Amino acid sequence: MTFYLAALAFSLGLIGISAFLGDHGDHGGDGDHGDAAHGAHGLHGPLGDLLSLRFLTWGLGGLGSTGAALTLLGVSPALRLPVAITMGLLVGAGTTFLFRKLRSLSAGSPAAPASLLDKEAVVVMALRPGALGKVRVLSDGQEIELLARGDATLELPPASRVVIVKFDGEVAEVRLAPWQEEESP
Question: Do β-strands 142-149 and 171-176 pair in parallel, antiparallel, or remain unpaired?
Fold first, then answer.
């Protein structure tokens, strides 16, 4: 019972901290790095999700609450642990899927990236050579934040004005706006 209560308490503590800090505790992101903020660094897709802090937090909560409830109901330990582990996996996977789905619906990722080509955007997370950053663009009266990649040799700090030149999947490729090139030293 102590193991299950400890797992539940740890999970609730992380959820509470996350709720209190909001986007400020997301290390610059989703404030977001897309899905990378919650997946293991360098891993994407299902394996990255299984190693994400979100999955582990909610999975521990599911495992802890189920294990504690089954203990109180007098279920045998041989059945309790597998059911608690299964429930933890289901809760972790379900929550990760739900957050991912909600993010794709609310992040304003464009349904038609072609409509954003040649639009001016503002850098909100620095664009560094070889790394992804983030830009904000206004489309149909709605601000949309996109993962972006800049010039391979130029670092663009937040507030820089850029133009979206193409998309590589969901990543906008941008260049410094022509009127900013003239102002640069």
Answer: parallel
- Per-residue pLDDT in tens (0 to 9) along the chain, 185 residues: 889 999 989 888 888 887 777 644 343 333 344 444 444 444 556 666 677 888 888 889 999 999 999 999 999 999 999 999 999 999 988 988 888 777 766 544 444 677 888 899 999 999 998 888 999 998 888 888 899 998 888 888 999 999 999 988 888 899 888 876 555 54
Looking at the structure, tell me whether residues 23 and 65 fall in a common domain: yes
Domain that holds residue 40: 2-106
The number of distinct structural domains making up the chain is 2
Burial of 82 (0-12, 13-18, 19+ CB in 10 A): exposed
